[in-house]
């Protein structure tokens, strides 16, 4: 059963709990990556911004990009970063829960990263940064991770669409709107998933419309496909999903034909929005 781990104190506790549910290896906690994350968290706090980039000369500057900042502390083959900035104090677990609700951030969290480090600042506002490094392939070429997963309970009903890029499409009117909890399919490092259709139905068989995230040339290497319901899901309701499409891996194209179900939680609580960003190199 998926529950909100309120007793967990750190973002990586939450990340690894979700990965364990999905049957993925846990990510090792790395102090050197935590130091890199702390550098950037300080920069975000001092400058009251939410960005992966740093500007030379600004207070707390330690490196323009993620790769530069991480490699000040440790060698790394591939890096990524997720962050959240809230205008009010909030527990770290609330920030990482909001990040995980954002579909492309979720894809980064479920990606095959070997190690990670985090830093959080909680004062008049809240900043959380998690840096990942090194790929440790865990999924076979034919494997995909669905979220919500088959049989999952207590699934959130909704989220606030502050994701970038917008899974509803560039320039959509849904930015900042309360939408249904996004459905995602994630693969390994070389996976490219194209959804042709997603049939989402409630326990009475009523079809629920969801938007398949449009693909652009920039999405060619994206390993996560998304379908976002236009409206919040109903509480305490069982939903079934049937997804059709293709999975490409290093030139090999395979059909996707997956069916599963999940049940939403008993309340319709929506996590307060945060400015969340995800980037990798």
Would you write up a description of this structure?
The protein has 281 residues and is of the alpha+beta class. The protein has 5 helices and 16 strands. It has a 5-stranded mixed sheet. Strands 6-15-14-10-11 form a 5-stranded mixed sheet, with no helix packed on it. Strands 5-9-13-12 form a 4-stranded antiparallel sheet, with helices on one face. The longest helix is centred in the N-terminal third of the chain and has 17 residues. It holds the Pfam family CAP. InterPro entries: CAP_dom, CAP_sf.
Q: What is the general shape?
A: globular
Report the portion of residues in β strands: 35-45%
Question: How far apart, in Å, are the first and last alpha carbons?
Answer: 34 Å
Radius of gyration: 18 Å
Q: Tell me roughly what share of residues is in helical segments.
A: 10-25%
Structural class: alpha+beta
Count of helix runs: 5
Spatial strand arrangement across the major sheet: 1-3-4-2-16
Q: Characterize the largest beta sheet: strand count, sense, and whether it forms a barrel.
A: 5 strands, mixed
> Which stretches of 5+ consecutive residues score pLDDT under 50?
1-8
Protein name: CAP domain-containing protein
InterPro entries: CAP_dom (IPR014044), CAP_sf (IPR035940)
Domain SCP: 12-104
Mind sketching the topology for me?
Layout (H helix, E strand, L loop, with lengths): L10 H11 L6 E2 L1 H17 L18 H6 L7 E8 L5 H10 L1 H7 L3 E10 L3 E10 L9 E3 L4 E4 L2 E3 L17 E3 L2 E4 L4 E11 L5 E2 L1 E3 L11 E6 L8 E12 L2 E13 L10 E6 L1
Parallel strand pairs: 1-3, 6-15
Antiparallel strand pairs: 2-4, 2-16, 3-4, 5-9, 7-8, 9-13, 10-11, 10-14, 12-13, 14-15
